[in-house]
Amino acid sequence: MRNTLRLIAVALLLSLPFAVSAQPANPYELPDPLRMEDGRIVRTKRQWIKERRPELMEMLRSQMFGREPGQAPDLHFTVLEESPDAFGGLATRKQVKVSFDKDENYYLILLMYVPNDRKGPVPAFLGANFKGNHATTTDPAVLMPTPEKLATYAPGYVVEDRNTNGHRWEYEYILKHGYAVATFCYNDVDPDFHDGFHNGVHQLMDGDKPRNGESWATISAWAWGLSRCLDFLEAQKEIDARKVAVIGHSRLGKTSLWAGATDQRFALVISNDSGCSGAAIARRKFGETLDVINKNFPHWFCTNYTAYNGREEKMPWDQHELIAMIAPRPVYVASASEDSWADPVGEYFSLVGAASVYNLFGYEGITDRTVPEIEHPVVVGRMGHHIRRGEHNVRLYDWQQYVSFADRFLK
Questions:
Q1: Nearest-5° angle of CA 401, CA 402, CA 407?
Q2: Rounded to the nearest 10 degrees, how much is the dihedral formed by the CA atoms of 214, 215, 221, 224?
Q3: Distances (CA, A) of 248 to 112, 125, 259
Q4: Among 83, 156, 240, 261, which residue is least crowded by beta carbons within 10 Å?
Q5: Lowest mean pLDDT among 17-26, 31-40, 267-276
């Protein structure tokens, strides 16, 4: 067995059926996800679960995402509004305050729609959003963020208009296919700017405890928030909490992957255009790189991660091993043809690199090293992938593939 998976990136890039930047990709060798640090090869599911997976998780926690805390000190839920008349009676809308502390100083507002035409508990999609719940829909009953909450967001934050980001949340399409869908604004958990971790849930969970190189950062906090929302979904009789897919776009795609890795209750994981430090292979050094991401967004990852700026080849892991943390649960990685910054080729090859772990569990994986054509989705075993035509975004085409993929495993 080869100890590494050698991928000749330049040749594959030139064969790609869409235009990308002329920037060359870096030739690289991927670490074998089934090779232990002591050199032993993982040959059984038990060995992966008991030895190799914890070894990789320790690496990702200590060197990339930081060490997330445990449960919130006083997690509780308050229904703020509920109506069965959403979207002309298609769904029941529920808006819930998910509080992390007794005094409710730290909380998020979860917006949830559940299809009314159901015979029992339904599967669900759960993901964070960028611009507020109100910005995901035309629904006039969706609450606007309060002045109290806005005061915790980034300085100069401007409230978006209703439905600004509605194209990314195809509620009616999802509901008509028998799924509930739930979302919250990521700023509710931790505002997306570098404030020294004095705002958001870091302050609640850490207080004034000194930070170190392994301290959890903002993406880890957003993933933690997704798990607290799953805690809520588990308490809802209309939701089958064993069948919840976690989804995210861009930086929130990085978040969904980490949430899926750290919380194995998520039944299915979807990464949409997550790019560098998400699904894309770091060693390719194509598009956004570690140096760029850590300098522009120093709050996203733990400070130990900066040791690999410009030195991606020195990382003892790569992003295919983050994908492998999801095994044997289904995983879908999507890219966009004009999104060279997120490196669609590198995203695809993370799936290829993780396939051996899915094989270990008895499932096929994506192993074809020919990058798929635009809008020719590939589903092999419990892995899915597509490259949508267009820019860095989420569109109806993406949701159509995600729903179709989820139908295989959650219905």
A1: 100
A2: 70
A3: 16, 10, 10
A4: 156
A5: 17-26
Residue 195: partners with Cβ closer than 8 Å, 6 or more residues away = 299
CB of 86 within 8 A of CB of 113? yes
Kindly name the residue from 220, 250, 256, 271 that is annotated as catalytic.
250
Does residue 392 carry a catalytic annotation?
A: yes
Q: Are 111 and 183 in contact (CB under 8 A)?
A: yes
Question: What digits encode the pLDDT tens for the residues 155-166?
Answer: 889 999 999 999
* Count of beta carbons in the 10 Å neighbourhood of residue 379: 17
- Rounded to whole angstroms, the Cα distance separating 191 from 291 reads 22
Confidence of residue 6 (pLDDT cuts 50, 70, 90): very low
Q: Which ranges in 235-343 belong to alpha helices (H)?
A: 251-262, 290-296, 319-324
Quick check: helix, strand or coil at residue 307? helix
Which candidate, 410, 386, 411, 390, places its Cα nearest to that of 400?
386
Among residues 76, 177, 194, 392, the one annotated as catalytic is 392
b/e string for 330-358 if b means 16 or more Cβ within 10 A?
bbbbbbbbbbbbbbbbbbbbbbbbbbbbb
